[in-house]
Amino acid sequence: MSSKNSRIRVALLAAVVAVTGLATAGPALAATPAVAAAVTVTASQAQEPAIPTDFVDLPTSPLQADAPQEFTVTYRNNTPTPTTVAPQLLVTSPDAGPYLAPSDVKVERRTGHGCWTAVQLGSRTGTLFTDLVGAQRTLGAGEKLEERYRVTVVNHEARGTVLPRVALYG
What we know:
This protein has two helices and eleven strands.
């Protein structure tokens, strides 16, 4: 018998055994209860990022190319309950363009120790913005938020408006 015929017979025999095994095991498998996989969900997985319910816009200022500008974002929780807030800085492009890019300006936030630390900017359709998620904090009744930012124009041809605001949650 040639080796080619042996291989075919072995493959055919293996297929017959597999089909026969499935046919006899089918009813037995159907009778066994399904086992659910254990899934652990941590609090961080179950909780989606909060979406602001409102914004408090603060006075705007034109973007100045000649010197760094400082902005203080302030908000007082005048409610009797704790409120989650997040300071945010928007830098908007002129309506007629050109759109600003994150490389056109440098935004820094003043730390509690008095040092300036760089802030990453997001960009959407010519509007640059600071992150809300990392800036969230809860203010107790009567507490005040005060966050200082410094904006420095890197591209001296950049034009726009700086809009400080506070995001309010729930």
